[in-house]
Amino acid sequence: MDTLAMLGPAALYMISMTLTPGPNNLMLTASGANYGYWRTLPHILGIVAGCFVLFSAIALGLGLLFERFPLFQTLLKIIGSAYLLYLAWKIASAPPPDLRLRGEGRPLTFWQAAAFQFANPKAWVMGLALMAGFLPEQGSTWVDALLLAGFAELVALPCISLWAGFGMAVGRHLKSARAWRIFNGLMGTMTAATVVFILG
């Protein structure tokens, strides 16, 4: 019963966290615009799978490493920020879809998106707060952690999908190469700007 009672508040928490801008959502918007929803779907599912594994691992002890060793937090910020800047550059420098060479410019794969969550400081913060705030103190930690992480990602799936859908809708209105370059530059700049909040 304790677990079930936590699901409502946990759902509200996940909605508020996954509907707000962040590295994942900005990249999904850019991907949806450039490649469409279906080609972005592996990216979406990779985020969901990566966060599920990360959140479960946090509940089962990985979170203690994050809390007890400040150096680990610093390394995570540096690695995550460096990778974000690389992805931001890739987004900003992407040519318009009709000018790309065949095979050039691809959305993130399932595995790339899943692995990125372990270097994504926002995913860590979200997982730590989720498990600290909503994991029941009684019962099986394994079962409750997997249930809570799985439920959280079920809630997150439609929320992050909206960002890819939003990007796809924007992409339909970009009629010129100049408009595409402005859009991709803006999305790349906004993705890079998240590094300021990560390192701040």
UniProtKB/TrEMBL annotation:
Main location: membrane
InterPro entries: LeuE-type
Topology versus the membrane: Multi-pass membrane protein
Keywords: Cell membrane, Membrane, Transmembrane, Transmembrane helix
Location of the protein in the cell: Cell membrane
Superkingdom in the source lineage: Bacteria
TM stretches of this protein: 44-65, 71-89, 110-134, 146-170, 182-199
PANTHER family: ARGININE EXPORTER PROTEIN ARGO (PTHR30086), ARGININE EXPORTER PROTEIN ARGO-RELATED (PTHR30086:SF20)
Protein name: LysE family translocator
Source species: Modicisalibacter zincidurans
